[in-house]
Amino acid sequence: xxxxxxxxxxxxxxxxxxxxxxxxxxxxxxxxxxxxxxxxxxxxxxxxxxxxxxxxxxxxxxxxxxxxxxxxxxxxxxxxxxxxxxxxxxxxxxxxxxxxxxxxxxxxxxxxxxxxxxxxxxxxxxxxxxxxxxxxxxxxxxxxxxxxxxxxxxxxxxxxxxxxxxxxxxxxxxxxxxxxxxxxxxxxxxxxxxxxxxxxxxxxxxxxxxxxxxxxxxxxxxxxxxxxxxxxxxx
Length: 235
Ligand SMILES: C[S@@+](CC[C@H](N)C(=O)[O-])C[C@H]1O[C@@H](n2cnc3c(N)ncnc32)[C@H](O)[C@@H]1O
Description:
CATH topology: Rossmann fold
Number of helices: 9
Number of domains: 1
Radius of gyration: 17 Å
Bound molecules: S-adenosylmethionine
CATH superfamily: Vaccinia Virus protein VP39
Strand order of the largest sheet: 3-2-1-4-5-7-6
Helix content: 40-55%
C-alpha cells in the first residue's frame, strides 16, 4: 500500500469528511483555528485580490481569510476529495459576499490557468505529499501566482525537543485516533494523520522546494514548532 498514492489520500479524506472538522477542532484544543488566522496574516492579501485556497478541505481557512477580502472578491478553492468539497459547498453559503469557486482537482495535475492568483494559501494540506510531489506543488504555486503575488502555508509538524516531540507524536498517533473513535470516525484514518506528520517533519522541505523555484521564502514556527509554515513572494 502506497500511502502517498493520490487515490489512497482521496479515499482517506472522503471517509474522514463526516468527522474531520469537529475532530480537528477538539483534538487541537482550538489551536488550528488560531493557527489558520496567524498563517493567513503572514501573506499580504489586498482588497480586490483573487486568492487560491489549495487543499481547501471544507473551507476551514475562509473565516481567517474573510476579513481581508471585500465584496465579490474571488476565492478559487481546490480539493480532490468529494466528501470534503461537499462540506465546502455547505460552508460557502456563510460567505455570500465572496465569489467562491470550488474545483475538484488533484493539485499535481490541475488545470487552473497560469498567473490566476494574487495570493495562494494552503492550510494543513502538505503532509500527504512526498518530497518529490512537493517539488511539483512548488512549481504549481509559482505557475498559479501573478508576479509579486504572495503565498502562505502551514502544516502540523514535529517539534524539536525530544520530550515534547515524543509526547506530541504519542498524542497525534494514539490519542487523536481515540478522539476520532469517540466522535464516530474511523480511528485508523486519524492514526494515519499522525503517521503522515511523523514522516513530514516540518515545512523546511516545502520551503526549500519553493526557494528552488526562485520564490522568496520565510519560515514560521507556531507553538514551539507544533506547526510550521512558509510564506513568501514571487519576484
Ligand atoms: C488536512 S485537510 C486540510 C483542509 C483545510 N485546508 C484545513 O485548513 O483544515 C487536507 C486536504 O488536502 C486535500 N488534498 C490532499 N492531497 C491533495 C491533492 N493532491 N490535490 C488536491 N487536494 C488534496 C484532501 O482532500 C484534504 O481535504
